[in-house]
Each structure stands twice: as C-alpha cells, then as structure tokens.
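Q: For a teaching session next week I want to show students how multiple molecules come together into a single three-dimensional assembly. I've collected the sequence lines for a complex. Could you give me the predicted structure tokens for the whole thing so I can convert them for display?
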Amino acid sequence: VITALIALLAAPAAAGPVDVGGYFRVMARPDVQGGNGRLGYWNLHGRLMNEGPYGMLDLRYDLLEREPGASEPWASVHARIEGGSIANADPGNGTLAAYRVSQMYVRGGNVLLQDVVWQVGTLEYFFGDLGLYDIRPATLFFNTVGLSAQYRNDFAEILVGFGDSGYGIHRDRYDAIPTFGGAARLRVGGHLDLGVGAEGRAEPGVPGNVNAPYQTPDMSYEDWVRGEVVQSYVQEFGEDLLDYFPAPQPRTASSYALVGHLGFGNFGPLVWNNLFIRWERRHPQRSTTEPWQGQDVELWVHDFTDQRFSLQIGDEAQLRLVPGRLDLAIGGLYGNDRDLDNDILPTDFDRTYASTVWRLQLYPARTFHFLAETSLAREWSRNGNRFREHADSIFANRGGQPDVRGLETGDSDTRRTWQAKGGVVLNPLGPGIFVRPSLRVLYGVQYSTQNNAFGNAFVERLDQYSDFDTVEQHWHHLAAVEAEVWF
Amino acid sequence: MSPYLWLLVLSLVLSGCLKSTPPVAAPTAVPVRVAVVLESFDDTDIEGAPASVVEQITAELHKRNLVPQVVPVDPSFATVRSTEGRLDRLEGDGVGLLVECAPRFSAQVNGRYRWSVQVEATLDDGRADEVRRSFKVPVHLIYDHQEEAAALAEAAPIVARQVGLLLDEWIDVTTAE
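A: Of course. Below is the structure for the complete assembly, covering every listed component.
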C-alpha cells in the first residue's frame, strides 16, 4: 500500500512537486527477564526505551505550487500513513494491517481571503510536543474530519474549525458527532508564546438509531461493573421475563476539551520551555455486553460514563548548559482522571499520575555523544488497590483470605517507578538532544514497586494446577540498539 | 566491565573521531563573492541567512582554497526575483556564488513541524553556463515559534555539503581546462 501510494504520487513529479517525508524508529532490545523488550509500561517514564517500533510516511503533493513571496492562490494535498509494526521487531512482524491512513487533507491558501489557509479533511492540530514523553496534551480535533480556516502572521494565529468526530470516536458504530472548536495564539518577540483552544462535541439522541447514545434504565452501577446486570434482573423478575428486559432510553451525549499553552525562552541557557494544559470531559461510552445463556445482552451506559473528567499538565524545558558540549532537557507530567459515576472500581478513569524526566546529552565529538536519562513516577488509584506489588498479593493485602466479591485488582493503590538509561549516540547531523537521525546503544534499568512492571508473559494466577510458577521481580534491566530518524 | 564492552565503546569513540578526507582544492586562491539569500513563502521580504549558515557555507570555500567575500543581502534583493538578476547584484568581476534558500512550512507531523528548504545554489564565473545545483532539505522543527531562519539553520549542514559538491564540480571543470 505504501509503495503504491509513493509510486502514485511520485509518477507525476515532473508536473508538480512531490514532497515525501516521514519518520521511523526501530530497535532490538533482547529481554532476558521475560519481558517484551520495553523497559516499563508506558511513556510516563519517558519515551526512551518505553516505546516500540514505528513507521510513518508523510506525503505532500502541490496541486497549485506556491512561489516564495507570492500572494497567488495555492493548493496542496497531504496524506500520512503510519503504524507500529516492523519486521522482526514486534509481534506484528511488519504487518501492513498495523498501518493506517491517519491523515488526509487538502490545504489551500489565498483563496477568498488573503493569508488564510483552508483545510478540508482530517483536522488534527497541536500547540506543541513534550518530546521526552511523546505526548501532546494541547491537541485539538484529533478525531475530527471537516473544514478549518487558519490565519497566521508574525504575531498571532487564529484557527477555527468544524466537522464530525463520529467515525473517529465510534468507528464501525458510527453516529454523527458534530464538533466545533478553535485556537488562538500570540507570539511576543520570539521570547513568549501564548495559546488557548477549545473543542466541543455533541451527539444528539436519535430514537431508533442503534448507534445513538442510550441508557438502560433500572440498572445499578455496581451490577454493571461486576457484569451482573442480567443476573440481577433474572433473580428479581425471573427468566421468563427476560424478553421484557428494560428497553434503552435515548440520551444526548456531549463532551469538550479546553487546552492552553505557555512557551518562553531564547534567553540565557534556556532554549525554550513549553507548558501545556488540557482539561477534558470525555465522550460517554456507548454500550457493553453481558453474556447470558449463550446470547449477548447489550447494556447502554451513557449515564454511567458521562462524568469522566481528565486534567493533564505537562512541561518541558530544553537548556544549553555548555554550548556545543552539553544539553539538558527536563520534563514533567501530571494527570488527574476522575470518574464521578464510579466510587468502587479502580480504573484508569480514577487516578492521578505524576512524573519527571531528565535527559543529559554530552558531545565529546560532533557526531559521537553520550546520553543519560532518568525518570521518577508515581501513579495512584483513587478507588483502591490496583497494582500488584507481590506475586502472591492475596497474602499481602488480605492475609491469604480470598474476597470473591472484591473489586480491587492488586495489593497497593500506588505504583512508584524509577528508571535510568544511558549509552552512546551517533548523530551524523551533529549535536542536539532532538537532532535526528540518532543511532543509539543504550542500557536501561527500572525499579518499580509493582511486580514485573513491564509487558511480559508471566503467569499471574496463584493456581496450584498451573504448569508455571509465578515470578516476583522489581528490577528490570534492558540493553538496546536502536535507530530513530526523521526524513 | 567486560573486555567486549570496552572494545565496543572504544570502536564507537574511534568512529566518532574519524578524520574526513580533505576535498580537492583550487590550485591558487580564488576570491569568490558569496550571497546567501533567505526567502519566505509568506512574506515578500528577503533577508540574509543567519550567520551560522553563512559560516558553514564559507567554511566549504576555505576548505577548497577559495576566499569568500560575503556580500550583504539588503532589501533591494526583494525587488529582483530571478537568479540571473540577483547574480548581477554580486558586483565585480570574477566568481560569484549565490545560494537562494526558501524554507516552506509543510505540516504538523506527530509533534514536530515539518519544513522543506528549497535551495538553488548557482556559481557564476562569467562563462555562458553557470554551475547550478537545486535540492530540497527536509527539516522537522520542534517548536512552533521557529520559522524560516530556524528551518534554514537546521538545514545548514546539508546545504553546506551540497554547496561543497557544487564547488567541487566547478573546480573539476576549471582545473580540467
């Protein structure tokens, strides 16, 4: 697919300029401790050694070519193909099924309005990136396809857009989610950058549409999370009345996101500092199913999932400590997810997390560098024990007495993780923490209060009939050879 | 540390300290007037390239026994859009090197800002056919406030290398004669 698209775009190159860019990272991280080649669970500990392989092609074809300094109309078509599988580097073994056309849009400028860029297609827009984490809190229109208009000059930028997020959010159970939003940013003298943005989504109820938002009435939250809604109904009314299981009632779903950005720098050793904030009310979930005597009963859960709020704050500073010799990047990330409908079940919607990542890069030669990074993270589950500190955690939290009605999934509500990574980097293009391509030989170590806090294939059940014993280990060591390139 | 690990580190250090082969130099020192122009797709103004870019380009001339004489790029360059017209602005006899750089923002790509820097490098020594090299350098900036000058600065190592190849070509031609 990728080759065909490149060929398709490259063929008429003589008639109009084609610009092909992209990114990939590939690595070998033989994990002799039973892991899957990633040091920890996720990017909270920094992207380095916690991410898998990835490939991307970004294509631009100028339909109506731009000329420097000209104010004539121009137009270009953009497409992006990306995914996370490369042969011999992950379980997918390079399958193209792991890739998708993530972006496709047409941009046109100086049409109707001077210096306004119109975009039709996918609309994703961000204020910047936390490069150490590979996380972009201040992102808008991630799920939206539609139309946007953007005006930008040397001091300010305004973006307004609208479209539909129905496929992005609900995929094959599409229901229209009209989405409106915009962003504004202000630049002051190359030292200060301020931005705000918002996005609102509404999903009107359409009675009769099986993909619209509904709520199954007379259902308790606890029964739902336990998967006992149908069982409770049958106990109360009898199996003969299962055909009269309550019909779903239509709802109107809505959600929104507010983002902010403060950037400053270009003085002293500070290259730049970016602070991002995101406050979001998540879009309600559609439905779940419960099996009952060989058939699935669909439960509509709008009212159980419409109070999920998420706060994320991230900051990253890049400092040039000794120009051309030593750079430092410091990042921090804080998140607070809250589900006001849920007071009983530990989930990712009811937690806080915080971490800091520090990366030093030393340049003894132009193309040969040393890298050192460390991170410290704390995750806390608001609704009780979520993390297993011990292979036999049932003896740690309940003295060996089983709680068959318990909803907790571990013996601690807190996970603390420390990581350190270091090694050598070959950068053909010279110094810079974020200069690519980078060829790296790294060693990483992690200590986590959670047992086996990395992707693994260990047995976790305490089952006397299992052929495999449980394993308890809190230290994780990993060596890596990896390459990362933008092109 | 095991001897194998030491060997690995040593080989990596040595690979980072490889000496590059010096390029072919002109037999006698030749003065070259150099102008590095920074254009914009969003603005009609034209500026001189950042000093770091000019330094990297002139370093390529020094390596080849060419003596750069940097010509300041003033606003009047904006009134002349053609390469030939701009070469005429490099007043004086002898050799003129014009490097026209036009960074263009393309798209936000997975956290970075993709630019492509279109470069037209032309060397004119008064003959009928100028020596010319056109190329495009992809750049992925990490901050939104970084614009044309930053994109060109990021592309400078590749621009300088390409200009060096252009100079090699010209030296080959002139030496053969």
